[in-house]
Specification:
Blueprint (H helix, E strand, L loop, with lengths): L1 H6 L7 E3 L1 E3 L2 E3 L6 E5 L6 E6 L3 H16 L8 H17 L1 H12 L3 H24 L3 E3 L6 E9 L2 E5 L5 H6 L2 H6 L3 E5 L6 H12 L7 E3 L4 H10 L5 E5 L2 H13 L4 E5 L5 E4 L5 H13 L11 E5 H17 L18 H16 L3 E4 L3 E2 L6 E2 L2 E4 L6 H4 L6 E7 L2 H9 L3 E2 L1 E5 L3 H10 L4 E4 L14 E2 L2 E2 L4 H7 L1 E9 L9
Parallel strand pairs: 1-5, 8-9, 8-11, 9-10, 11-12, 13-14, 13-21, 14-19, 18-19, 21-22
Antiparallel strand pairs: 2-3, 4-5, 6-7, 7-25, 12-24, 15-18, 16-17, 20-23
Helix pairs in contact: 3-5, 3-8, 4-5, 11-12
Bound molecules: ligand TXE.
């Protein structure tokens, strides 16, 4: 704890980071540099290189060389697992440091940032097992003259583009799974939250990852990100971000080398609450689901779909809970909701709050900017009298704004839950197990929670249906996404000649 308390002051000067290629930081030199201000404090905290396209080409070339000479793919699964496990060990040791920089750049509460790093430790530990157990299939049923196998191979050089809402967690839901099978990679974090991605690269070198296997470039999405999605020598790309950029990623893949894609995009996730639920638990879960990470969460439960007989009472219960949530300085141990990460996102959220009022929804609580003398904060907000056609009920707000929509029948609840272009996550709250299971089958979402929300672990796949994305991350499914399958047919005995 000593280390924690000594770190909890703001840095005196911003920490300078170069990008990371071939196992080492590359000093910024004469590159332009981006200065990141902590959104909770308005103080400069990091200085990050704006990489050029040449820098990207260098990073991709490094990853390509590391892939082709098999310095990583050629190791045994056991040796790769050892590096992943060592990374987990170092992450444990350096948790405070990672959480600190994550909090400063992102604005999330320090206690939450620490818990996220612990979650990442679990990702590395679990994926280490997959490095050893990943296997294909054998076909002993081809007749006595043949034998065949299907093997799993790494895809090659994988690009990873991540957003600013969970810079480290989203990265670690991918990196260990990508590396488990022997791929090499180039990551591009969001320009506003690059520090912890660079720290992970440094930590993995410390853990014994061969140079060139994990490279990081830093810079803007519109230039550097765009160059990545168009790059001819990136074999696969994992993109997490807005649905709009996701569309650009698909187009760029089609126009370049048909790179394989993994996409995790937006969500407008339902929380379906029945009158027979434990309403105290449900109110806490719904409050957590919309306020965690200030609602800047692709799986936030932003649409409360609640049985009409309890709707008003329940909306009030959720609102009471949210008013007790502690909003404040992200570096304060007691804070539950920190700052809004970017100025643009702050404007977007306040824009939706104003739109909700204009559209005729009733503001139950919140709806305002909170002034702590520094940073940008928004009170958790609940709107009732919302109709399904309102923008606040349809569009991803990506902030602590909950809309309440009442239903009368189970069928109506299912229809409302599915009435969205997205399909990332959903929760149902009821004590009737038959109803919960039936609804879990019918709601289109990649993640489904019963009597809880935002729960999971490294074993479970993450990803979306409909316009929320393609593919799955994490779990066995995640590691398989980053492999390609090859069939090997082996003829036995003397060939039956075609030309006699
Ligand atoms: O996302 P972007 P932004 C949603 C959320 C939010 C909105 C905008 O609704 O309000 O998106 O956030 C990189 N080619 N989500 O603007 O732009 C960019 O540098 C290649 C939901 O931050 O999609 C960053 O690294 N890359 C989402 C990453 O893409 C490009 C999480 C995400 O940025 C690029 C984040 C381009 N042309 C936002 N343009 C979720 N579901 O979790 C940008 N990038």
């Amino acid at each position: 704890m000593d280390m924690a308390s000594s770190l909890l002051a703001l840095p005196e000067t911003p920490r300078q980071f170069g990008h990371y290629v071939d196992g080492a930081y590359v000093p910024s030199g004469d590159r332009d540099v981006f200065t990141r201000n902590s959104p909770g404090h308005d103080t400069a905290v990091t200085r990050i290189s704006k990489c050029t396209k040449d820098d990207l080409n260098g990073a991709v070339a490094s990853a390509r060389a590391a892939f082709e000479d098999r310095r990583w793919a050629g190791l045994s699964g056991a040796d790769r697992a050892a590096v992943l496990l060592k990374t987990a060990e170092i992450l444990r040791e350096r948790t405070e440091e990672i959480a600190y920089w994550e909090t400063l750049e992102n604005g999330k509460p320090i206690a939450q940032a620490r818990a996220e790093v612990q979650g990442c430790v679990g990702m590395f530990e679990y994926a280490s097992g997959l490095a050893r157990s990943l296997h294909g299939d054998s076909f002993n049923n081809m007749g006595d003259g043949a034998f065949a196998v299907a093997t799993r191979e790494p895809v090659g050089v994988v690009g990873v583009i991540t957003p600013w809402n969970f810079p480290f967690l989203i990265l670690c839901e991918r990196v260990p799974y990508i590396l488990a099978s022997g791929n090499t990679m180039v990551a591009k974090p969001s320009e506003v939250t690059s520090a912890t991605t660079l720290l992970l690269a440094e930590i993995m070198t410390q853990a014994g990852l061969p140079d060139g296997v994990f490279n990081v470039v830093t810079g803007a999405g519109s230039t550097l990100g765009q160059a990545m999605i168009e790059h001819m020598d990136i074999d696969m790309l994992s993109f997490t971000g807005s649905t709009g950029v996701g569309r650009a990623v698909v187009e760029a893949a089609g126009k370049s080398n048909f790179k394989k894609l993994g996409l995790e995009l937006g969500g407008k996730n339902p929380q379906v609450v029945f009158a027979d639920a434990d309403l105290e638990d449900a109110a806490d879960g719904v409050a957590f689901g919309i306020a965690f990470n200030t609602g800047q969460c692709c799986v936030s439960g932003s649409r409360l779909i609640v049985e009409r007989s309890v709707a008003d009472k329940f909306a009030q219960m959720v609102s009471d809970k949210l008013q007790k949530a502690v909003v404040g300085d992200p570096l304060d141990e007691n804070t539950q909701l920190g700052a809004i990460t970017t100025d643009a996102q702050n404007r977007t959220i306040m824009g939706y709050i104003n739109k909700g009022k204009e559209e005729g929804a009733t503001l139950v609580s919140g709806g305002e900017q909170l002034d702590f003398g520094h940073g940008q904060y928004i009170a958790p907000t609940v709107f009732s009298n919302v109709t399904p056609d309102m923008a606040i009920a349809r569009e991803e707000i990506f902030g602590p704004v909950l809309t309440v929509l009442p239903f009368d029948t189970v069928e109506e609840a299912i229809t409302m839950a599915n009435d969205t272009e997205y399909g990332l996550a959903a929760s149902v709250w009821t004590k009737n197990i038959d109803k919960a299971l039936m609804i879990s089958r019918r709601v289109q979402a990649g993640r489904f929670w019963v009597n809880t929300t935002l729960a999971g672990g490294p074993e479970l796949p993450i990803g979306g249906m409909k316009q929320s994305g393609w593919g799955r991350e994490a779990g066995v499914y995640g590691v398989e996404e980053y492999t390609q399958v090859k069939s090997v047919f082996i003829e036995m005995g003397k060939r039956d000649h075609w030309i006699k």
